[in-house]
Automatic annotation (TrEMBL):
The lineage of its organism: Bacteria, Pseudomonadati, Pseudomonadota, Alphaproteobacteria, Hyphomicrobiales. Keywords: Hydrolase. The keyword Hydrolase applies. SUPFAM superfamilies: Thioesterase/thiol ester dehydrase-isomerase. Gene3D superfamilies: Hotdog Thioesterase. InterPro entries: 4-hydroxybenzoyl-CoA_TE, HotDog_dom_sf. This is Acyl-CoA thioester hydrolase. CDD domains: 4HBT.
Length: 288
């Protein structure tokens, strides 16, 4: 069966960052709404497949202010998870594929045949372009505590409070809120590294996120205060991976982890820029 159309939208100027590119939090917000519509159309729910374990987004083409957004969704049984809900985002005017999201579920193995039958009208083959490339598909399963991370060198990079407007229909903080915290944390983290704002301005560079994964470990609700600890996890020639831990401030409970793959972007030619070897060494030394 073909993918089901689940969202028609528009990229507003206020949703774009300093590079006039749709901020990653709004990609997650778009996919979250598309998923709600897909559940309505298909009858899919957590009660049937278990709670979603992870959402993994790949950013394939820049979405800018004024661009039309269209999303189509389906269920794949040949993806990286036992059951994978796949969302594809397109430019509504040109038809170009701009981003993908896969939602990972792990239902009971004995129910696989029943689920295949139940969702046969919504089954799609897993698209190769939606498979994770730079970040592992599996959900983050960490026992790292706030104090352990601080002792290891993680950077306190953001504080926020969950408000009513940040909650979804289930009265829990939504994906867009969690990713907005990671997005706001990133520039403060980079100021603790060689890639400070001044370095980017001097070299005509920006930063482009190519992939992001959100793992919820416990829920957040309105009134909860959160803080974010950030650290690098790996450095490559032209890219690096960054991890943001969202803790509930009062109890120091880990609520979510957002991983992202980032590359330096030459703003003049809009292409990845190689970092000097010494800069890469300095960044590697900061990895946890």
């Amino acid at each position: 069966m073909p993918f089901q159309e689940t969202l028609l939208s528009f990229a507003s100027r206020w949703e774009c960052d300093e590079n006039n590119h749709l901020n990653i939090q709004f990609y997650f917000g778009i996919f979250e709404e598309a998923d709600r519509q897909f559940q309505l159309l298909s009858g899919f729910s957590d009660a049937i497949a278990g709670q979603r374990r992870v959402r993994h987004v790949r950013f394939l083409r820049e979405v800018k202010s004024g661009d039309l957004v269209r999303v189509a969704s389906g269920v794949a049984f040949d993806g990286p998870h036992m059951l994978t809900v796949v969302h594809e985002m397109f430019d509504g005017a040109t038809g170009d594929l701009t981003a993908t999201a896969i939602d990972g579920y792990a239902p009971n193995a004995s129910s696989a045949r029943t689920l295949r039958t139940r969702f046969k009208d919504f089954m799609v083959p897993m698209p190769a372009h939606a498979n994770p490339q730079e970040i592992a598909a599996t959900p983050v399963n960490t026992r790292m505590t706030l104090d352990t991370l601080l002792s290891a060198g993680a950077v306190l990079s953001h504080r926020a409070t969950v408000l009513a407007r940040h909650q979804g229909a289930d009265n829990r903080a939504d994906d867009q809120f969690a990713v907005s915290c990671a997005s706001n944390a990133s520039p403060h983290f980079w100021e603790k590294t060689p890639l400070k704002q001044a370095y980017h301005k001097e070299n005509g560079l920006g930063r482009l996120t190519t992939e992001a994964k959100l793992t919820w470990l416990s829920p957040l609700k309105a009134g909860d205060a959160i803080l974010v600890l950030s650290n690098l996890t790996a450095v490559q020639d032209k890219s690096f991976t960054l991890r943001h831990h969202l803790f509930e401030s009062r109890t120091k409970r880990l609520a979510a982890v957002c991983d992202s793959a980032v590359l330096p972007l030459d703003l003049q030619i809009r292409q990845p820029a190689a970092l000097p070897e010494q800069t890469r060494r300095d960044l590697t030394a900061l990895c946890l």
